[in-house]
Design a protein that fits this description.
The complex is a heterodimer of chains A (429) and B (259). Chain A has 429 residues and is an alpha+beta fold. Chain A has 13 helices and 14 strands. Chain A has 2 domains: 5-37, no CATH class; 44-418, Cytochrome-c3 Hydrogenase, chain B (Orthogonal Bundle). Chain A has a 4-stranded mixed sheet with strand order 8-7-6-11. In chain B, 37% of the residues lie in helices and 12% in strands. Chain B has helices spanning 17-23, 29-35, 65-77, 86-90, 102-108, 113-117, 146-158, 169-175, 181-185, 201-204, 221-230, 235-242, 250-253, and strands at 5-11, 36-41, 53-59, 78-84, 137-139. Classes of the chains: A alpha+beta (429), B alpha/beta (259).
Chain lengths: 429, 259
């Protein structure tokens, strides 16, 4: 039993970006607990001002190399909302395919590369190649599938280029799409094996009820648009985001902390999505969840891994459905530039992503506002840690440190995303 | 073959996209691990070792004193330093920040910038790596295609100089038998001044190149800028084109309106 303890991780490994973890316990009480972010701020909203609305998605893509696709789609939708553009059903479908591709590659990275080594006793996936080649090959195959799906839609896997305002510069060829359909079908078993594999791991039992927030819409599993709903009864439109959430600055971090106004910290990401949209998962994803005994709502943040794996199965099923219905026609993408304000929320692999833009008559950006999933999760991670630390008092320092890191990794934080932050109006001259 | 190549992957101010491209070596990974030992790669490993390293891939630009210190340290420990991607080579998209007056940013950014700034300094300026340390290999691109990463690993293993293209995107575009979108569709394509390596993916997807691999060798930026004006772009449009991925390079400085 440890009354005094110091957990200090100078540079948290196997997460995206530059973050640290400091926890100090004295006389059995937590004196200090900080998820510090020393990743430098990149001031995106500042330099977006004056840029053209047609290139905003291309620029914001560079906030994050793990989830460039949701940044692009959110920016595109916010700009389209500002300009009063309604995209075609085909564009909606192709964007959903592209975002699913992004979710698959990101989830597989998170599950196998970032999280699994902790559970199997390795320091990295690279070390697992010798003894677990089959698992590693499954991971690489699924990750490649996600990346190739993004590339098929967007011309490039990381920072795609063909998704633009009001559509795609090039619609995939029917043949290539059919080939992708076959690969998705073939990968389905690997995705199911992923669920089974992660449910066979010893996932820590730790429950802390916090508000879970996700997009939701009737008739489909929402990732690119929908209402924001929560486990505490929230139900709002995307343009009401700023009325329900607020950010505050903390001095030890370049990332701001988000809270639901009047309630507190909240969780976004795969676990929130599955908790709030369980009925809309594909038949097979639901069946698998039943088989492994996963019930919703689940408030164990470590179970995010299971939610992630279930989402991969769901993504594959949904992608096949989309491919079967999408006509793949060349479409008119022309649009008129005008002034306006637009908002959009999508689901990045790690959770809600909010963009809003004010556009001038000439199409240039007057104001930009972006809130990323990790900025929203940051305070919830700390609150979870605060409750987790006393429950692991009998572990050695080394074990306790690892357990805390595992909790952080369960959120799959994306630190590059979290520090793009700044709110800046165009200076009036 | 002798000992494995000891490699390290570092991240400075960037988006992790280049590291993600490294991890996009998927089918290739088991073979890559036969010739390299990954000693340092915080995003992918928990046990990260001190140097010396044979090759260090450095993603991102330098925007804090902490990063500068890390860069100098890794330079001393590395036989070969690779500027890994656009941010490291020439600032990329975040370098647009260099045109925003720092006082405006520092006063309006965050409610109380000083409260954080006093603890964690930021230059509020994006600097490519070569401003501080000698660079051995430049891997251009946002991100550099994974085949270029393989080319670097392969050539170093063989003791050869990596073959990295400096000709324009146009060469690759012709090889793909595309019709020139600048000439025939009057689209503002940056291909004629942009280094190749991507496979001309944008013109192949019927859209103009935006220049994400940075300037080719001997790029004639002013001629292309003139052509852009002739096909109907405004002066502002032209500045935005050149002030995007490599506005702070000498090759694009004039067209990006660097003063």
């Amino acid at each position: 039993m440890s009354q005094e303890r110091e957990i200090s991780v100078g540079y948290v490994a196997r997460v995206e970006g530059q973050g640290s973890l400091e926890i100090r316990v004295s006389s059995g009480k937590i004196d200090e607990l900080r998820l510090g972010i020393f990743e430098p701020p990149k001031f995106f909203e500042a330099f977006l001002i004056g840029r053209h609305c047609g290139e905003v998605h291309e620029l914001t893509s560079r906030i994050c190399g793990i989830c460039p696709v949701p940044h692009q789609i959110t920016a595109l939708r916010a700009v389209e909302n500002a300009l009063g553009i309604r995209v075609s059903e085909q564009t909606r479908d192709l964007r959903k395919l592209m975002n699913y591709g992004s979710h698959i590659q990101s989830h597989i990275l998170s599950l196998y590369f970032l999280a699994a080594p902790d559970y199997l006793g390795y320091e990295s996936l690279f070390q697992m190649v010798k003894e677990h080649l089959k698992i590693v090959k499954r991971a690489l195959k699924l990750k490649k599938l996600g990346n190739d799906l993004v590339e098929l839609l967007g011309a490039r896997a990381i920072h795609p280029t063909s998704a633009v305002v009001n559509g795609f510069t090039k619609v995939p060829e029917k043949e290539d799409m059919n080939l992708m359909r076959r690969r998705l079908l073939d990968a389905k078993q690997d995705a199911c094996d992923t669920v089974e594999f992660f449910s066979s791991l010893k996932i820590p039992e730790f429950v802390r009820r916090s508000e879970h927030v996700a997009l939701s819409t009737s008739g489909e599993f929402a990732i690119n648009e929908g209402l924001l709903v929560s486990t505490e009864g929230m139900k709002i439109e995307e343009d009401e985001y700023r009325e329900c959430f607020k950010e505050s600055q903390v001095e030890y971090s370049w990332a701001k902390h988000s809270q639901v106004i009047g309630r507190g910290s909240f969780l976004v990401g795969p676990l929130a999505r599955v908790n709030l949209n369980f009925d809309r998962l594909s038949h097979d994803a639901k069946k698998l969840a039943g088989r492994i005994g996963f019930e919703v709502p689940n408030f164990n943040p470590f179970m995010s891994h299971i939610a992630r794996a279930l989402e991969v199965v769901n993504a594959i099923d949904d992608c096949i459905e989309i491919i079967d219905r999408v006509p793949l026609r060349e479409e008119d993408r022309s649009y008129e530039v005008r002034s306006g304000i637009g908002f959009a929320v999508t689901e990045a692999p790690r959770g809600l992503l909010y963009h809003s833009y004010e556009i001038e008559d000439d199409g240039s950006v007057r104001k930009a506002d972006i809130v990323t999933p990790t900025a929203q999760n940051a305070r919830n991670i700390e609150n979870d840690l605060r409750e987790l630390v006393p429950t692991i008092a009998d572990l050695t320092d080394e074990e306790a440190t690892l357990r805390c890191e595992m909790l952080v990794r369960a959120y799959d934080p994306c630190i590059s995303c979290s520090v793009h932050y700044v709110n800046l109006d165009r200076p009036r001259t | 073959m002798g000992d494995k190549l000891k490699i390290a992957v570092f991240k400075m101010t960037g988006c992790a996209g280049c590291q993600m491209e490294f991890l996009r070596l998927e089918e290739e990974l088991p073979f890559v691990l036969e010739i390299v030992e990954i000693e340092y790669f915080v995003m992918a490993k928990r046990e990260n070792l001190e140097g010396p390293y044979d090759v260090s891939f450095v993603e991102g630009s330098i925007s804090t004193p902490r990063e500068l210190e890390e860069l100098r340290g890794l330079r001393e420990q590395s036989k070969i330093v690779v500027a890994f991607g656009d941010c490291a080579c020439h600032g990329c998209v975040p370098s647009i920040l260099n045109w925003i007056p720092p006082d405006i940013a520092s006063k309006t950014v965050y409610e109380d910038f000083q409260a954080i700034h006093s603890k964690k300094e930021s230059y509020q300026k994006i600097c490519p790596l070569h401003e501080f340390v000698p660079i051995d290999i430049y891997l251009r691109g946002c991100p550099p295609h994974k085949n270029m990463i393989l080319e670097v690993l392969r050539s170093i293993t063989l003791g050869a100089k990596p073959f990295l293209r400096k000709h324009p995107v146009c060469v690759e575009c012709k090889l793909r038998e595309n019709v020139c979108i600048l000439t025939f569709e009057k689209k503002a394509c940056m291909g004629p001044v942009t280094a190749a390596g991507c496979g001309a993916i944008c013109p192949t997807a019927y859209r103009e190149c935006e220049g994400c691999y940075g300037p080719m060798s001997d790029a004639n930026a002013s001629s292309l800028a003139q052509q852009f004006l002739e096909i109907g772009l405004t002066r502002n449009d032209v500045i935005r084109k050149f002030r995007k991925y490599a506005g702070i390079t000498e090759a694009f400085a004039r067209e990006a309106d660097a003063r």
